[in-house]
Amino acid sequence: MSVGRSIRWDGIALGWLAAVLAGLLLSLPVRGAYDALTGSSVMSGKFTAGLVIVSLVSGFLTYLFGGYVAGKFARRAGGLHGAITAIVGTATGAILGAFGVAVSGGIVVALIGLGPGEVTALTALALFLVYLFGGYVGGKLGEPSEPAVRRMDD
Fold it and tell me: Residue 133: is its pLDDT beyond 90?
């Protein structure tokens, strides 16, 4: 059986919804922890190193949880399901970005007014890779055990 035929899009959709909810719940505590540890404040609407750090941490945790949920619904390839969950989230973010708004780690950043040099391709790539890795690891953690997979196929 090919991997393409074993992809469960309903599980990926549920994983993505779980990631959205986790992002909303995790962003404030992660942001608060960053503020407490550094003594500086991450402000919405300003693209700073603090925003990137908070986005990396909360985004990883968000897609770790979303990937886990997607992996639980996968018959096989839980890691792939988790990674696809992160890709769906990134694509949704890119679509929102086309309209001038980005949601990164649960923090809404107005992209209108930011200069082209402020959001670099390297930063966007780093965020994507961390989200993808979080989704993959979460999917692997949520992947059904081999005996359970065999029972479902029988």
Answer: yes
